[in-house]
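Slide 14.
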Amino acid sequence: MDESEPLIRLKRGRHMRGMNARQIGLRPALLALTLTTGASAAVPASGANGAAPASGTNAIVHIKDFKFAPTPLTVHAGDTVTFLNDDDEAHTVTATDKSFDSEGLDGAGSWRHAFAKAGTYRYFCELHPYMKATIVVLPAAAPAN
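Slide 15: predicted structure.
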């Protein structure tokens, strides 16, 4: 590491040398683009009863224009849902019963939650309480033969 390179301050008081600010700022955007591109192919638009079904063990919920999409989302117990903040504003993913909480997600931020039990989970954004959505968790899928 060359001590003559500028010191760049990162989150949580960390510092680094050797990468310019553009390289650091580009990483979250590239990650979001990669995840978003893959997500559009992985999550079908709609399923039974208008709910969007997840394929496999992962599903994606996009936070865009102060809305969660899709809603409702249907997954199986044991599946993981990734929440991607595609807005410029910070948001949270918080269960109304407080059983899960992402804390603050900045723009291009993401958070994952595994749903262990079947049930209906209602959630909202604590920063924008009018943003509400639902995830329906069905019993675990039978193993494929």
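Speaker note: The helical segments are 21-42.
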